[in-house]
Model the fold of this input.
Amino acid sequence: MKKSLLFCCIVLGWGVNTQAQSLENSVFWEITSPHHAQPSYLFGTHHLHSYQFIEKNPSLLQALDVSQRIVGEMVIDSTHMAAVYLKLAMAMMMPPSQSLDKLLSPEQYQATDQCLRQNIGMGIALFNNVKPIFLYQLIMVAKYMKTQNQEAPPPSLENPLGNSMDGFFQQYGKNKGREVLGLETVDDQLKALYDGYSLTRQVEMLMLMVNDQAGGSSEELVSMTEMYRQQDLNALQSLLERNTQPDEMQSLLIDRNQQWMPKLDEWLRQPTSLFIAVGAGHLPGSYGLIAQLRQKGYVLKPLAIEIQ
Done:
């Protein structure tokens, strides 16, 4: 299991506040291009789920083997980790005039301190100057790992993505000598993740997670994982659109998908096959990558795999 904190909150990107036709149950899709005969592939990842099932699906490994380029949301490797950690540290810090002891009520501060101690073994004082969304992510990952009876090894310079599904695909491609491409930069992703919510909304989300209420509960994390195992993109979309505000969906999902499409279209027009691995929430909906690729003339067909 995983994971690098840089990627954890992308899980929030599942769901979009739009009406769209239902999709077949699959997170693995073949893309047939009108520009050349060789197919490409699209895979929806769960940024917290174990990737061990990948090696038990020969068709998935075969798709990786025949793809000449691996595409992820972003590219991170060990040679850039010092700069990435610095950017992450800057992105998660609150403005100089703000701190958690000022932003939270005494009751909220105490409840968060207790939750942090129970789930990660450290109190809130160590995080007094970080944005509430960062604590939300910490607690979410810790709670998720407990539901799966797993512990998440931290990322390192040798393993910068942690034990993530996304990291597996990128490392697999590198081991095969494939080119790895990113749809956005570290700066792009950090801006979406840490500036996509107002501080007021971040506090609201944090307290839902701290108090294990609807929208931030362990039960919903379990439900989300089961929906992923069933590869039910429609159910995943419905689950999270209930708890995500329209402006957040715009910045976290819709805008990013629209920014990615020109790159994907350009790369898919080239005579090299792609294996595209992005968060599963970027696939469904009228703004999803499946619908947008189809609108551009690509044929997308679901492929059957098993996820444990």
Observations:
- Residues 5-302 form one domain.
- The first strand starts at residue 28 and ends at 32.
- The radius of gyration is 19 Å.
- The chain has one domain: 5-302.
